[in-house]
Amino acid sequence: MFKLKGSLLISGDKSISHRALILSAMSIGKTRISNLLESDDVIRTLNILQNLGIKIIKNKKEWIVFGNGTNGFIEPDRALNCGNSGTTARLMIGAVSSNPINCTFVGDNSLSKRSMSRVTLHLEKIGANVQLTNKDYLPLMISGTDQLLPMTHKIQKASAQVKSALILAALNIHGKTRIIENVLTRDHTERLLKFLGVKVNIKKINNIRNEIELNGPIEIKSKNIEVAGDPSSASFFVVGALITPNSKIILKNIMLNPSRIAFLKILKKMGGKIKIKKTKKICGEEVGNITAEYSKLKGIKIPSSSSAFLIDEYPILSIAASQAKGKTVMKGLNELRYKESDRIRSIIYNFKNLGIDVHEKNNNLSINGKKLELEKSIKIKSFDDHRIAMSFSILNILCQNKLKIDNQKCIAISYPDFKKHLKFLLKKSNA
Ligand code: S3P
Known about the structure:
Blueprint lengths: L1 E8 L4 H12 L1 E8 L5 H12 L3 E5 L2 E7 L11 E2 L4 H12 L4 E5 L10 H9 L3 E5 L3 E7 L8 E4 L4 H11 L4 E7 L6 H8 L5 E5 L3 E8 L3 E2 L3 E2 L4 H13 L4 E8 L6 H8 L3 E10 L2 E9 L7 E2 L4 H4 L3 H9 L4 E4 L12 H11 L4 E4 L2 E5 L9 E3 L5 H13 L4 E3 L12 H8 E3 L3
Parallel strand pairs: 1-15, 2-13, 2-14, 5-6, 9-10, 18-19, 22-23
Antiparallel strand pairs: 1-24, 2-4, 3-4, 6-8, 7-8, 10-12, 11-12, 15-17, 16-17, 19-21, 20-21
Helix pairs in contact: 1-2, 1-6, 2-3, 3-5, 4-5, 7-10, 7-12
Bound molecules: shikimate-3-phosphate.
């Protein structure tokens, strides 16, 4: 038997790493970025910015970005390859749209099945010219212009990527752009812009809606950026410690943005012994340490109103639910259908193979906890989805490595050091 013990510094946050690169490329002057997450997704954004004429170099542990301003992208001489990364595609489509250049965006198989019209419909309304594959998908061609119109956008489906794409476009639009989001989503773009001295007006409407206003064109002066640890990456080890007897871990330097740590509240409600200690603020984001130890978890109901703040953590929350006493119901998971894999399907497929009682109706998922006593190896399909592969790697601690997970390479999409970090925390348990 194994347990998780010790303290660990988690790698940099993926969402902030993308934004740090893009916003420093759109600043005037030189930015030093420290603790950038060097995952496949983030490197896609970095390479695309280089294809758009931005000089980016690595110096020891830091990345140095030589920004060209909000109207500074140069027409690329090749297609911009976003690989597996939805954040790269959606944010970069927004960023280039208000520059007078033509760009072609392409992606891998999974990304080519994910909707891009959720961004481009807004951009077409304000004057960008876009040609999509089958009206919704990559490959797409966009002809941007520095004459896009300032307008009010209403975002119906919760999406931080769509919101961020429109904010990035607005940086080079003459006049007031207003963005209304009906459901609050992660706000790293807004926070980083404020840290960089940009005036972003944010009005909360009834605590569930936001109105974001920017008056462009905006000149951003470069400022060095430090990236805090990724709470979504931390969530795997937090759940690992909660479900594995005799475990206790401390995860350090974790970004504690309220829109990203809702999973901790949920796990506490399930009976998880978790402590959070705020230590400092980095580039507009609260940062601190998380302690988690083995706990007897119980099933709970998770309402759909929390789903935008839990979007990346449902796979690992499902693992927690599978080891809790009783039934957990997760409501309103519609958006999980459109991630790197159809995550509802990926979870159900593997749980059924493990004999875990799982049901789905109208995108609500219910899971009955079950102690796993496997006699033989069981194949797990990752569906090439990094968060599915990592979630089942955590369950594998309890299954004494009997889960044979295919394509674990995909973990490098968001957390290249995951295996190394897991090995570091794993200790032999005498009990
Ligand atoms: C992200 C937003 C979320 C999330 C993704 C990263 C971001 O997607 O799932 O991993 O960095 O803006 P949506 O905005 O599409 O929900």
